[in-house]
Amino acid sequence: DTSGYILSFQIEKLLPYVDLFLYDLKIVDRTKHVFNTGVSNDLIKTNLWFLLQKGKNVIIRIPIIPGFNDSEEDKIEFVSFLRDFKTFQIEINLLPYHDVSEKYEALWQTRKKPGRKYNEIVLNSLKKDLERLNFTVKIGG
User: Fold this and answer.
1) C-alpha–C-alpha distance, residues 97 and 119, integer Å
2) Could you write out the DSSP letters of every residue in 128-140?
3) What sign does the dihedral 60-133-49-75 (CA atoms) show?
4) pLDDT in tens, 15-40
5) Is the predicted pLDDT of residue 141 greater than 80, yes or no?
6) Fewer Cβ close by (within 10 Å): the C or N end of the chain?
7) Which pLDDT score, from 0 to 100, does residue 107 have?
8) Distance in Å from the first CA to the final CA of the chain
């Protein structure tokens, strides 16, 4: 399970020992990625290409987070970026954000704060758009 933020020569050393990479892709836009994580996503994108070109089994996992990557613009950027990978057999897991305070309700306790909800319309639309590119897409993972 990786964000892919690792030097390429280090990830290459792992190849003989790993048969499945669960690869998180949080946001495509470089500027937004830097602003929200403090680092560029260039290395993450490069390593994803590297793994796929080496024939490694990769499941791309996209956490859908309210106000971070669940806008229509983000959806378009994900589809545009992933379109380049459509020749590979890739499963994509869309991981809906869950507010930890929802667990309080499950335990019959009052929420400590109001919950945030991901954009379900964008989530389902992203799923359909990626399936049109012949990806196997699951909500959850």
Assistant:
1) 9
2) HHHHHTT-EEEE-
3) negative
4) 999 999 999 999 999 999 999 999 99
5) no
6) N
7) 63
8) 12
| Residue whose structure tokens are 């545009």 | 80
Q: How many CB atoms lie within 10 A of CB 130?
A: 23
Distance (Å, whole) CA 114 – CA 127? 27
Count of beta carbons in the 10 Å neighbourhood of residue 8 = 11
pLDDT digits (tens, 9 = 90+) for 61-117: 999 998 889 999 999 999 999 999 999 989 999 999 876 655 555 665 655 555 566
Q: Where are the beta strands (DSSP E) in the chain?
A: 21-24, 58-64, 91-96, 136-139
Q: Which of 104, 131, 99, 135 shows the shortest CA–CA distance to 116?
A: 99
Phi/psi at 59 (5° precision): -110, 120
Residue found under tokens 């309080």 = 104
φ, ψ (nearest 5 deg) of residue 11: -65, -35
